[in-house]
DNA sequence: CGGCTTTGACCTGCGC
DNA sequence: GCGCAGGTCAAAGCCG
């Protein structure tokens, strides 16, 4: 795997999905990064993984990934990381101080709270000023819900690659396409999807690998706040069964029965490979295994 | 008619 | 500050 390849998928709080295409031929990567990963909890489903509060990269990712800094930044995310907000408790890593720093932490807590309140108050006042100014300028620019000066926070993301002829893989949830953009250095566009559930802010992007057009790279951002996929209009299919990982991938599973359609799904954590989706349902639990301490 | 896709325009972040 | 690329919006049109 080249450094360039890595950069393509290595963003700030983004889970890097090992994408050495040699995996397609069944070779396991020889690099230590994957070899050092610990198995995840077999109880978790892929769906759980999507909903996982933290995808706590510090726990899930390899040391190499953590060291890169791409992972640590995730700890700066608010506890409401994920869609719907507020359903996600703060990750242990970010909320529980280590024993060595606990005393000092308590000592500072009240002071920090005051500072925080003060800062919030100031920000609110600032926003109000900006808002009134923005109201005056409304005729000039398109209205934008996002506050000025507010940095866009990125949800933890992870990607996996699937060798498939179809771009948009059925994963049990319903998605609405809201954009498509040409990607630099790639002949294939990137499609942007949002979960159709009103309270769910999960997004995903789908693009084909420029190196291997047969490979679809799907990137999820956020986590679902709902257990059931949004009901399909005029269809009972998605309501017929609960949206477990197995059922979610059943649709995909069916696709994989097409001739010459090979599937490989790589965990960003372990680099698993699926060759032929008859294995999918059996392997999925492993795919989402959680790191053991 | 409601939901979805398409697509051009606009916004934002980042590197130079 | 400027330009580029990624990301998002929203109007128009399509479809079941």
TrEMBL record:
Looking up PROSITE patterns in the UniProt record yields:
WRKY
Q: Extract one GO molecular function annotation from the record.
A: sequence-specific DNA binding
Q: Where is the composition biased (Basic residues)?
A: 141-151
Q: Where is this protein localized, as stated in its record?
A: Nucleus
Q: Where is the signal peptide?
A: none
Pfam families this protein is in? WRKY
Which cellular component terms (GO) are annotated to the entry? nucleus
Keywords recorded for this protein, A-Z: DNA-binding, Nucleus, Transcription, Transcription regulation
Where is this protein primarily located? nucleus
Region Disordered, residue ranges: 71-160, 221-245
Residue ranges, compositional bias (Basic and acidic residues): 117-140
What region holds the WRKY domain? 164-229
Q: Which domain of life is it from?
A: Eukaryota
- Specify residue ranges for compositional bias: Low complexity: 88-100
Q: Where is the composition biased (Polar residues)?
A: 234-245
Q: Which PANTHER family match?
A: WRKY TRANSCRIPTION FACTOR 48-RELATED (PTHR31221:SF350), WRKY TRANSCRIPTION FACTOR PROTEIN 1-RELATED (PTHR31221)
What is the name of this protein?
A: WRKY domain-containing protein
């Amino acid at each position: 795997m080249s450094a360039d390849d890595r950069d393509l998928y290595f963003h700030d709080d983004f889970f890097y999905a090992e994408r050495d295409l040699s995996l397609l031929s069944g070779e396991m990567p020889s690099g230590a990064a994957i070899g050092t990963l610990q198995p995840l909890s077999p109880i978790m489903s892929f769906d759980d993984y999507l909903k996982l509060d933290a995808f706590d990269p510090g726990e899930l990712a390899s040391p190499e990934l953590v060291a890169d800094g791409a992972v640590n930044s995730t700890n700066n995310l608010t506890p409401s990381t994920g869609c719907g907000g507020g359903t996600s408790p703060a990750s242990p890593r970010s909320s529980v101080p280590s024993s060595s720093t606990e005393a000092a932490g308590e000592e500072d807590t009240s002071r920090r709270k005051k500072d925080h309140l003060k800062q919030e108050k100031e920000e609110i006042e600032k926003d109000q000023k900006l808002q009134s100014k923005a109201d005056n300028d409304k005729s000039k620019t398109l209205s934008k819900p996002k506050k000025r000066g507010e940095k866009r926070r990125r949800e933890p993301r992870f990607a996996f690659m699937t060798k498939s002829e179809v771009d948009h893989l059925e994963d049990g949830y319903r998605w609405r396409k809201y954009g498509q953009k040409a990607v630099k250095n790639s002949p294939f566009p990137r499609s942007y999807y949002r979960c159709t559930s009103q309270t769910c802010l999960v997004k995903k992007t789908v693009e084909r690998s420029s190196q291997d057009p047969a490979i679809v790279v799907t990137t999820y951002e956020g986590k679902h706040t709902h257990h059931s996929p949004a009901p399909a209009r005029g269809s009972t299919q998605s309501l017929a069964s609960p949206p477990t990982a197995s059922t979610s991938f059943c649709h995909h599973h069916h696709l994989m029965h097409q001739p010459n359609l090979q599937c490989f799904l790589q965990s960003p954590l372990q680099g698993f490979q699926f060759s032929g989706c008859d294995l999918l349902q059996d392997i999925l639990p492993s795919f989402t295994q959680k790191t053991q301490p």
